[in-house]
Design goal:
The structure holds two protein chains of two kinds.
Chain A lengths: L2 H13 L8 H44 L5 H5 L16 E8 L17 E5 L2 E5 L4 E9 L2 E4 L4 E2 L11 H5 L2 E7 L2 E6 L4 E6 L2
Antiparallel strand pairs in A: 1-2, 1-9, 2-3, 3-4, 4-5, 4-6, 7-8, 8-9
Chain B lengths: L2 H23 L3 H17 L1 H6 L3 H19 L20 H14 L3 H11 L5 H8 L3 H16 L2 H7 L3
The chains are: A alpha+beta, B mainly alpha.
Chain lengths: 200, 166
C-alpha cells in the first residue's frame, strides 16, 4: 500500500468525526486550580516541617542528653526529624447515594432523572452498588483517608438506554476520601472530586 | 505572549487534529476529547518544557500517547457482552462513512504499538526519528512496527477494495 493512499484513507476516517470546540476555559481553570493546590500543599508541608522541627527537636535533644554524652548542637540541627502528616481515619461503612459523579471531561455524569438510583455500599473491604442499571461489586482498601478500589470490579451486563453513568471507571480513579461540611467526597490523584456521597 | 496565550493559540491550531489522532488510535469520539484534554492539561502544567522542546508537536504527541496508554490501562475491560446485540434501525450510510468504517476496522486489526506507529506516521506525519522519540523506542523498532503494520493492512480485503486492487 503506497503512503499517499494510506494517508488519504486515514484523513477520510479522521474527518468523519465532528470535533467540538476545545474546552479551553475549562483546561485553563483546571490547571490554575492544580497549581493553587500544589502551592497550598507546598506551604502546608513547609509549615508542618517547621512545626515538627520546633516541637520534636528539643524533645529529641533532651532525650539524647539523658542517654549519651553531649554532642555538638550542629549535628541535630542539620537533620531535623521527618514525620508524616497524620492521616484521618474516614468511616465509609454503609450505604450511600451517589449525589454527584464527575466525568473525566469535568462535567456531571449522573443521569438527569432518578439520580438517587446510583448507589454504593462499603462494608469490610467489599464494595457493591448500582449505576442505576447494572449492579457492580468489587473490593476496596481504605487506610486512613486513602481509598483504593481494586481493578477487578465486576458488573452485570444489561444493555441500558440511555447508557448508564461511568461509575465503575470513575471509581478506579479514586485515591482518597475527604469529609467537608457534612459531605463525603471521593477524590482523584489530582485532588479533583470524582464522586460526592450522601446518606440515603 | 504569556504562557496561557501561547497555550491558547497552540490548542486553537491543533485541537481538532489531536482529537482525530486519538480517535484513530482507538478512542471513542467522546473519550478522544477527554484524553486530549488531559494530555494538554499535563502539557500546560509544564508548558516551559513544551516550548523548550526541540520539536513541540513531538513532545505533545508523546504526552498524548502516554495519556492514551494510561487511560487504556485504567479502563476496566472485564465487561464483555455475551449475547448478540439487538438489531437497530439505522439510517442509510454514505460511502464516506463506509470507507471510514473500513479504515477503522482495518486499524482494529493492528496491535496498539503498530496502530500508534501508523497514526503517527501517516496521519500526524511525524518522521521516523520523531516517532522514535514519541514512542520511546529505537528508530529500528519504529521501522519494523511500521513494516509489520503495513503488511497487516495490505492483507485487509476491505482496504484492498478501497484501493481499487483486483
Amino acid at each position: 500500500m503506497s503512503d499517499p493512499t494510506l494517508t488519504d484513507l486515514l484523513e477520510t476516517a479522521g474527518d468523519r468525526h465532528e470535533v467540538g470546540p476545545a474546552p479551553l476555559e475549562q483546561m485553563l481553570r483546571d490547571v490554575r486550580r492544580r497549581r493553587r493546590g500544589r502551592a497550598v500543599l507546598g506551604g502546608a508541608g513547609l509549615t508542618l516541617a517547621t512545626v515538627a522541627t520546633a516541637i520534636l527537636v528539643p524533645v529529641l535533644m533532651r532525650a539524647d542528653d539523658a542517654a549519651s554524652p553531649p554532642q555538638p548542637a550542629s549535628s541535630s540541627s542539620t537533620h531535623p526529624p521527618v514525620i508524616s502528616p497524620p492521616r484521618q481515619q474516614v468511616d465509609l461503612k454503609g450505604t450511600w447515594v451517589v449525589a454527584a459523579l464527575v466525568g473525566r471531561n469535568g462535567r456531571s455524569a449522573l443521569p438527569a432523572h432518578g439520580p438517587n438510583k446510583v448507589r454504593l455500599a462499603f462494608h469490610d473491604g467489599r464494595l457493591t452498588g448500582t449505576d442505576g442499571c447494572n449492579g457492580l461489586s468489587g473490593r476496596y482498601v481504605l487506610r486512613g483517608d486513602r481509598l483504593h478500589v481494586r481493578k477487578d470490579l465486576s458488573t452485570t451486563q444489561v444493555l441500558c438506554v440511555p447508557p448508564p453513568p461511568p461509575l465503575s471507571s470513575r471509581l478506579l480513579d479514586v485515591r482518597s476520601v475527604t469529609k467537608d461540611q457534612g459531605g463525603t467526597y471521593l477524590v482523584d490523584a489530582a485532588g479533583h472530586v470524582v464522586i460526592a456521597l450522601a446518606r440515603p | 505572549m504569556d504562557v496561557e496565550e501561547e497555550f491558547t493559540s497552540y490548542v486553537a491550531a491543533r485541537w481538532a487534529r489531536l482529537v482525530r489522532s486519538a480517535v484513530l488510535l482507538g478512542c471513542s469520539p467522546a473519550e478522544a476529547e477527554d484524553v486530549v484534554q488531559s494530555a494538554l492539561e499535563r502539557c500546560l502544567l509544564h508548558w516551559r518544557r513544551v516550548t523548550a522542546a526541540h520539536d513541540r508537536d513531538a513532545y505533545v504527541h508523546r504526552v498524548l500517547i502516554n495519556t492514551f496508554t494510561s487511560s487504556r490501562r485504567r479502563r476496566w475491560t472485564g465487561e464483555r457482552s455475551t449475547d448478540p446485540l439487538p438489531d437497530r434501525v439505522v439510517d442509510d450510510e454514505t460511502t464516506s462513512v463506509d470507507d471510514a468504517d473500513a479504515v477503522m476496522r482495518a486499524l482494529d486489526r493492528l496491535t496498539a504499538d503498530q496502530r500508534a506507529a501508523v497514526v503517527l506516521r501517516y496521519y500526524t506525519h511525524l518522521g521516523e526519528q520523531q516517532m522514535a522519540t514519541v514512542l520511546g523506542v529505537a528508530r529500528g523498532t519504529v521501522k519494523s512496527r511500521l513494516a509489520r503494520a503495513l503488511e497487516v493492512l495490505a492483507e485487509d480485503p476491505a482496504l484492498a477494495e478501497l484501493r481499487g486492487a483486483p
